[in-house]
């Protein structure tokens, strides 16, 4: 399942690029939204694929520059593929890529997610078991604050008007397509955005696992936060898969 309207608009522009340098990616042809006063820019990247068979959703803040470049590379490498095949490959290659993936997999395996999904390791979710997961972001397109990757807190994600159509629109609609999938928000800022949708009646609280820290290596509190919430998260995941067995 794909949301291909924007992809149809931007696909040819991606193929026409002479390079994938930062100034090329973060340029006017790919600019979606901007708040000059708050120094926020949102650029297009092809992260539209929705996996209708996903049993778990791993939700981050927003793709960064690294993921943006990875997504463009995937599209260019798959020039002869169908739109759906290309966009599915983007999700597999670009989502939570880089060092963050190792930290994420370590924590997910500690919560026994892989056991409930019937796979050897949560690392398989980025390979052979990719059909079981929807890797996504509350802000689905790359956001930059003062030219740097946006971290979800400054400015406040759920109080920023520029973000509202993405949080309460695009992301909420994506979750509605995946009605029984367990949702794992990565970090406090993503959790707050997801809880806003719960308060608005757009998401069922039972689907949301609370307390998972953002797996970035820059998050010095992740080990403590994970330890404090580990047992409760482990119980929640086990209970969810009792209600929704594979």
Question: Care to give the gist of this entry?
Answer:
This protein is α/β, with parallel strands linked by helices and 246 residues long. The protein has helices at 5-16, 22-25, 65-77, 83-94, 99-110, 113-117, 164-177, 188-199, 222-243, and strands spanning 31-35, 40-43, 56-60, 133-137, 143-145, 148-149, 182-185. Helix 3 runs antiparallel to helix 4 (83-94).
Helical residues, percent: 40-55%
Order of helices and strands: HHEEEHHHHEEEHEHH
List unreliable stretches of 5+ residues: none
Distance from N terminus to C terminus (CA atoms, Å) equals: 20 Å
Question: In percent, how much strand structure appears in the residues?
Answer: 5-15%
Rough outline:
globular
- Average of pLDDT: 93
Architecture overview:
By secondary structure, the protein is an alpha/beta fold. The chain has nine helices and seven strands; from the N terminus they run ααβββααααβββαβαα. The strands form two sheets. A four-stranded antiparallel β-sheet has the order 1-2-5-6, with no helix packed on it.
């Amino acid at each position: 399942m794909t949301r291909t309207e924007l992809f149809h608009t931007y696909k040819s522009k991606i193929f026409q690029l002479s390079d994938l340098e930062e100034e090329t990616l973060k340029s006017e042809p790919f600019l979606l939204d901007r708040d000059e006063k708050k120094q926020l820019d949102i650029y297009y990247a092809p992260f539209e694929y929705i996996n209708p068979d996903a049993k778990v959703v791993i939700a981050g803040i927003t793709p960064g520059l690294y993921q943006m470049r990875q997504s463009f590379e995937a599209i260019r490498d798959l020039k002869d593929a169908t739109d759906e095949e290309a966009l599915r490959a983007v999700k597999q290659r670009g989502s939570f890529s880089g060092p963050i993936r190792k930290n994420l997999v370590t924590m997910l395996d500690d919560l026994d997610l892989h056991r409930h999904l019937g796979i050897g390791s949560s690392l398989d979710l980025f390979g052979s078991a990719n059909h079981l997961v929807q890797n996504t972001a509350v802000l689905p397109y790359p956001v930059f604050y003062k030219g740097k990757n946006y971290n979800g807190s400054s400015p406040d994600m759920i109080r920023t008007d520029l973000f509202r159509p993405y949080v309460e629109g695009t992301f909420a609609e994506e979750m509605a397509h995946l009605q029984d999938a367990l949702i794992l928000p990565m970090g406090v800022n993503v959790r707050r955005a997801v809880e806003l949708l719960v308060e608005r009646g757009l998401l069922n609280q039972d689907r949301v696992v609370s307390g998972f820290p953002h797996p970035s290596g820059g998050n010095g509190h992740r080990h403590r936060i994970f330890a404090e919430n580990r047992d409760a998260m482990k119980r929640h995941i086990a209970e969810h898969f009792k209600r929704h067995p594979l």
